[in-house]
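anyone seen this seq b4? input:
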Amino acid sequence: MAEMSRKNGERGASLILVGMALVALLAALSLAIDLGMLYVARSQAQQAADAAALAGATTLANSNCIMAAGGCVAGGSQETQATQQAETTGAQDSVMGQAASIQDSDVSFNYPNPQEPEITVTVQRSAARGNAVPTLFAHVFGVNAVNVMAKATAEAVNPTGGGAPVGYGCVAPFLVPNCDPDHINIPSGNVNGACDDGNGGAGYFINQTTGQLENPGVYSSGGVVGEPWQLHSDASPSQWYLVAYNTNLATQISTSNGNGQSASLLRQYISECVPQLLSCGQTVSTFNGKSVGPTGQGTDARINASGDGLGKGQDTIDTSIGPPFPFTGGANNLNQSLVGQTYYGPSPSQVLVPVYDGHQLNPGGDTATIVGFMQLFIQDASHQGNADLIDTIVLKVIPCASGGGNEDGTTPAISDAGGMAVPVRLIRTQ
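predicted toks r here
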């Protein structure tokens, strides 16, 4: 009888043990599933922060201050533009189904030196903002939502410390003269009649004597940044020539007669870029002839235009704001998220071209020496008679460095596959 009483007293003990095991199992499930979900959310937030920081740094790289001798200063207009671009780019990523929302307070700037601006972007979903990430199982234990945050820092670095880079990769094969048609002010030191078109001449972008910008600043205030410039292939001062390359892996033609030049390669190099470094002081050969068809076709392909003229799907530029000037993505922009959106580059319509001193060249083939580089925004291309007309906006004029060099006396070259003047890199994530 005593044995039976003891057994009756132990009834229900197994239910308690099972219940305790279920609680432990539920806790384990909560830990495994919710922590896994939060890990994914954290990874997505980091991805959004990285992309936003790199986009902001790209805007800093495209700003005029990064190339100026004094560099960028805290609180400058470049910060407003970089913040907007970071917010726009971040919103294209999602964190657990919600677009990454970046506020102005989530973006900060640092300047280790004036030519090395840094941007830090924080992406977060938090209870303070009413968008903390909800849990699946942990709410059983009173944890209904968890804050998720990620941070990234990127920088733009002018490797010359304020001087102009001495060489670039991915340059468009337009050889433009150092002749500014909108500023008729030939200074003393005019070299060999450069830029003298017989009609009062044209001014210089780069002073032939000092090597400095002749008219720095914004076009609306008398400078050249934002200046409209129509290039056309009836080459003479203030117009342009084509850089000649032969069919052997884009090796530049060393002779001036144009032997071996390829119109199909010319079209390709305009639409993509020349896969060869061009440097300050380098002597280049000009293309023998205008090659009107390939030039226009290559230009339309470069800017994603479906044909000649404006409104053919290419990006547009607004010079009433900035610099930097905002772009609006055209219908044919390869990045569909930019179609109809305002952004700050890089745009497929931006090209980098070499500048020569501007003296008269032989249209049948000649040579010229690079004295600088120029960044242009191509608005459109069209044909008129036997010429290609290319409407552009001057974004930057970059004089060659006046000094420096390698120990062996050669000119150092800074190559950038994207053709941009300043490299951008992600330097820190947390």
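The first strand starts at residue 94 and ends at 95. The chain has five helices and 20 strands. kinda curious what u guys think
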